[in-house]
C-alpha cells in the first residue's frame, strides 16, 4: 500500500481538505485500498479540528472532515510516507532542509501533478467561504488529475 502525506501550515485548511478530497476520489476510482492518506502541518501547536469553512465546503460535496484533528509533521510521518506533498514551495524547502534524508520523497502537490501556473496552493485561512470553495475546487481538480493519471 502506498502512503501519501499531505502537508500545509496548520493542518486545518488545505491539507485537511486535500486529505478528504483525495480519499473521496480514491474511493470513486476503487483505489482506496491501494493508497493510505494522512495529513499534517508545519506549525501545529495544539490539536484542533478542521476549519469550519473547510468542513462546510467539503460537506457540500458529501465529504465529511468534521472528525479531523490537526497534527504536527514529524520525522516518523515523513519516514513512513512514500510521498510527501506540500501545498507550497517554502513548505517543501523547509521539510527537505529539516529532513534531508527524505528530501527525495518531498515535493509540492503541483510539482507532482505537473500543473502549470502559480506553484503554490494559496492559504485560505481567515478568508471567506467563497475563498475556501475556490481553494477546494483547485485541490479537487489537481487531485483528480493525479488519481486519474496514477501520479498517486
Strand order of the largest sheet: 2-1-3-4
The percent range for helix content is 40-55%
- Tally the beta strands: 4
Number of structural units classed as domains:
1
Shape: globular
- What oligomeric arrangement do these chains adopt? single chain
Highest CATH level, the class: Alpha Beta
From the helix content, strand content and strand pairing, which structural class follows?
alpha/beta
Major sheet description: 4 strands, parallel
Number of helices: 6
CATH superfamily: Response regulator
Distance between the termini: 11 Å
CATH architecture: 3-Layer(aba) Sandwich
SS strand fraction: 5-15%
Residue-averaged pLDDT, rounded?
96
The CATH topology assignment is: Rossmann fold
Task: Give the helices and strands as they follow along the chain.
Answer: EHEHHEHEHH
Q: What value does the Rg take, in angstroms?
A: 14 Å
Pfam families: LMWPc
InterPro entries: LMW_PTPase (IPR050438), Ptyr_pPase (IPR023485), Ptyr_pPase_sf (IPR036196), Tyr_phospatase_low_mol_wt (IPR017867)
Active site: 8 (nucleophile), 14, 123 (proton donor)
Domain Phosphotyrosine protein phosphatase I: 2-149
